[in-house]
Hints:
It contains 15 helices and 16 strands. By secondary structure, it is of the alpha/beta class.
Amino acid sequence: MIIRARIVVPMVRDPIENGAVAVNESEITAVGRFDEIRREHDGDVLDLGEKILLPGLINAHCHLDYTALRGKIGPQPSFADWIRAINAEKANLSEQDYIDSIRHGFSEARGFGTTTIANLTAFPKLIASIEEPIRTWWLGELIDVRNPEEADQIVDEAVAHLKSARRWGLAPHAPFTASQRLYSRCEEIAQKENVLLTTHLAESRDETQMFRDGTGAMFDFLKSIGRSMDDCGGETPVARFLRTRTVNDRWIVAHLNELSDGDFKLLREAPRFHVAHCPRSHSFLGHAPFDIERLRSSGFNICLGTDSLASNSDLSLFAEMRELLRKNSAVLPRHALEMATFNGAAALGRRNRLGCIRAGATADLIAVPSSTDDIFGSIVAFESVVPWMMQNGKAVVV
């Protein structure tokens, strides 16, 4: 079929006025001006009228487990207090609550134009019970802070469940909750199975204070539950991570809010990984400013996520783009859209297959109204449920 729109935004080239996309089964076969595509390709024409056609959005960091926690937790005095609060809420959720939470999250994300999601789940055993309405990387979120002697068993049991998914990876939670052995076991399996890795790093002041200074609210909290604190004091979380891990482009590192000049020096010398930024969760939790310009100039690929609804109001990547622009005047709407499409695809190892409109790419497409002559501004300003979506070459009801 041929899909025509007033504007087609390929992301790998400039927007096309009176554009069209030719689709054969699940793949895009051509993109260009409508008259050219119509002349060179057969198929029924679907005319979207005055809409803007763009790639489906990619959420590079999300926790659908906690969709049910929307509005349950307010701002807390410290990040350690926020962890206590979310743990208290999680204690009230049943297995069915988590299944329902994930399903509702999928539905909401798709309504906001997300066609691909990297979802961290603390419950890999539930994956087999859940249908994927959008393309999903299931990333098993793993913690052994209370039982580090069981690191290998925790990882191996998660992998047994994760392998029921088409796309999966491993997510050692963070250096303060996952042991060195758990990280190493995840890296061993990722190398063997060629899967993604993700983690939370340098998210909060508490985390930095714990590792750099050996003090603070996080230090006290984790010490009280029995964590060995022998690795604390003397270096930042980033310095510790880069010193102890085999870093490469298989890693998606979430947050990186608390970075010192010394951290940036280390990062400039380190192999490149991908960075997931969650603007609204970042604002809700009151973290230090995210230094997007310094990270971009250092060569890091930055993509967008929503984080969980324990620290956000909905799963709209359009809203994430708007928050990013509100807080970073040097970022243009086009840059924000790149982070929510093309950059996310690169982080997932699907550069030129997802997050763009080009021959050979998967036909994941969405359409939004054209409200002004500012194409990218119109896209970022969109606030409703997307009026049209195609996933894997099939138009779907949102």
